[in-house]
């Protein structure tokens, strides 16, 4: 897969410029002590826009881990929804920029599906439709891998 291309549709420009939830998410994160996470989001966006999908994947993996930690600190009902929404966004981005998802490994595709299923359970409501769309795309990819003829050396 060429550098900068993604397996799933994930457009940073669209997310940042025309998705009011994203601006609200960033404001809410900053209000809850997540300024550094917002800086990581900006770095990941710049990496993606510059065609560096590996850096974007790595940074979004860090963001996802921070969101996961927030979701598991204290009582679940006390966690602000912005951290759940961040978990959704970071799960989608991590899957989208994963070069491994484009490989012939159905095991890796299944792993990405499990990660996105966790985003359905743990993520917030603002990006649920995006998570569902990413899951649907990966299901189609998994079906193609199952249906494609095996590569026999003979």
Automatic annotation (TrEMBL):
InterPro entries: ARM_KDM8_N (IPR056520)
Domain DM8: 25-147
Top-level taxon of origin: Eukaryota
Name this polypeptide is given: DM8 domain-containing protein
Organism per entry: Cymbomonas tetramitiformis
Organism ancestry: Eukaryota, Viridiplantae, Chlorophyta, Pyramimonadophyceae, Pyramimonadales
